[in-house]
Amino acid sequence: MTVEDVSLNQPAGDPAIWPLDPDVIFLNHGSFGCCPRPVLEFQQQIRARMERQPVQFFVRDLEGLLDSARAVLAEFLGADADDLVFVPNATAGVNAVVRSLRFERGDELLVTDHEYNACRNALDFAAARWGAHVTVIAVPFPLASADDIVTAVLERVTPRTRLALFDHVTSQTGLVMPIRRLAEELAARGVETLVDGAHAPGMVPLRLREMGATYYTGNCHKWLCAPKGAGFLVVRRDRQALIRPTVISHGANTTRTDRSRFQVEFGWTGTCDPSAWLSVPESLRLIGSLLPGGWPEVMERNRALALAGRKVLCDALGIAPPCPDELIGSLASVPIPDSADDGAPASPLYADPLQDELRLRHRIEVPIIPWPAPPKRLLRISAQLYNSLPHYRLLAGALKAALR
Length: 404
Fold this sequence. Notes:
CATH architecture of the largest domain: 3-Layer(aba) Sandwich
Shape: globular
Number of domains: 2
CATH topology of the largest domain: Aspartate Aminotransferase, domain 2
CATH class of the largest domain: Alpha Beta
Mean pLDDT: 95
Structural class: alpha/beta
Strand order of the largest sheet: 2-8-7-6-5-3-4
Strand content: 5-15%
Distance between the termini: 36 Å
CATH superfamily of the largest domain: Type I PLP-dependent aspartate aminotransferase-like (Major domain)
Low-confidence stretches: 1-5
């Protein structure tokens, strides 16, 4: 599907399902997503069931309900349900892996300079604990092709490299990383791969059985549009005995033989509200029903809109696209002039005076990201079914006015 194949000048699907403020042009689906009203209503039904008879729900019903939800999600992801567990978010999944693994002093852990800060911090924590070393790979941006990424990574692999952590879709720069190529090349060198797939589910087609990553974690509350607090972790079968949840609970001394300890431990880490996890199948069903072509059309439409929106911005700024189209999903970032303030951002969620100006003066919610470090910065757009091309034209006009 190309930009010319679809109508991007109006929202797709039923705009009434989105509980967004109608007075705000919301171009930041990538940060937290937006959960449709029917899915929120479904979640509330689960919560009502939970409160009506809590013992029945938690003791007798929950494990089977989670098994059913895992099976639906695993099929969508191209994974095996026995290899998948629910976690609150991708950051929790990354922490579960890196805090479970053991390293030797002098071992090397790879990460790119595009990695999401929270997960980079988890890797630094693990390295400090074991005396390992984090090697940061500079991946150029702008860049010409996926080969630039693969070359930059492989040049930094040594005999001491044990683990590589990659965003599947980079949060700051919006690049769809060549994960399968990277995982295959690293596996051939004896290096395990941990993929932070926070943005990938619902943005790009996934076949996790074929991807080759040792560990893959992702969010359901972003592009799958599930309620907040729904994430997953997929661990290759031969590594599951090593990976423990960050909260150790009853499953640590289980004597059960009907399922793996991996499933038992992650299946219960203490009392919580599991309604977000149990709502994932409903979110998959609903979003997949909004366009005639189902999820493939949803992904292709959003990608076409992100590319069209990026072109509008690049034309307004007088710059070339910073990466080829094939490295774009439903996020796109473009460099903008440096900030006048070269200090640290006031918030880890990318507070910038320009972001405030666009929100307050133009009612446009869009992130301005300090990358690779202040005063350098990017503007990142998201594309979801409730967005349309006029939104990005309005942003381009507001941006030009603000940067004068």
